[in-house]
Amino acid sequence: MIITGYLDEGHTHGASPITVVGGAMASARQWQAFQRAYMPIKRRYEFEVFHATDFKGKTGEFKGWKTEKYLALIEDLYELTKDAFMESVVAVLDNAAYESEYRLGQSPKRLRLDSKYGMCVHNCIMHFVVEAARRKHRGRLPTLHCVLESGHKNAGDALRIFKEMKRDLKGSEYDVLGEITFAAKRDCDPLMPGDFLAHMQGVRDIREREGKPITEDEGPPPGRRERLTVMRYQPGALAKLKRELIEGHLTRRTKL
Prior knowledge:
By secondary structure, the protein is an alpha/beta fold. Helices cover 46% and strands 18% of the residues. It has eight helices and six strands, in the order ββαααβααβαβαβα. It has a six-stranded mixed beta sheet, sandwiched between helices. The longest helix is centred in the C-terminal third of the chain and has 19 residues.
C-alpha cells in the first residue's frame, strides 16, 4: 500500500512565539476523495489557493470578505478535514525554549542541529512513520511518501532530516519511508489541510499563552478535532535532546 503525507508550516514568519507544522497522511483513494470534496468548496467561495496568512489577514484572494463568509469557510474546512484522512498531526515548537535549551551554548564541530522548521517536520514525519507501520498487512509494510511545500528557507534541512530518518529506519520494523518531494501550493491542493490545521492550532496556542479566550474563528468547534494529534515538547525536553545528540556525536567520533 502507498501512503502519502503532506506537510505545511504555519507561524514561521515574523515575531510569532511558536513554530508550527501540520499535515495529513492518507491513501491515494482517500486523497482522491478529498480532492473531489475540496474542489466544490473552492468554487463556492471563489478562491484558488488557501494561504492561511492571507486568510487570517483577509488579504489576497480573501480581501474584502465579510465575517459570515470567513466563518462559513472555517466551518466547511473543519468538516472536510476532521475525518478524511488516516492521520492528521500538528507539531508546535516554543521558539524561546528552542533558543535557550537547544541552540544556546557550544556544540561539537560538525554536529548539525535541526532548524525549528526541521524539528517540527521531523516530529510530524515520525508520527506518520509510526502510524503507517501500524498498517502492516500480511507481513508487508506500506510505503510512506512525504510532500512538503516548496520554497521554505529550511527546505534543505527538512530534506537532510528525511534522508537521515530513512537511513536510520532501514531494516527496522518502521522501515516505511519512500521518497520526499516538494511542491508549490498552487499545484498541490493536499497541502491545504496542513496549512489550515497548523495555522488554526497555532492561533489557538498563542491565544492560550496570552490567557485570552478562544473566539469562534480561532479554534475548532467542540468535537471537531478527531484524528488530530498535537505534538509539543515538555519543559526541559529540548535540553535533554541536545545532550543526547552531543553524546551520540562524540561516541561516533571516538569509534572512527
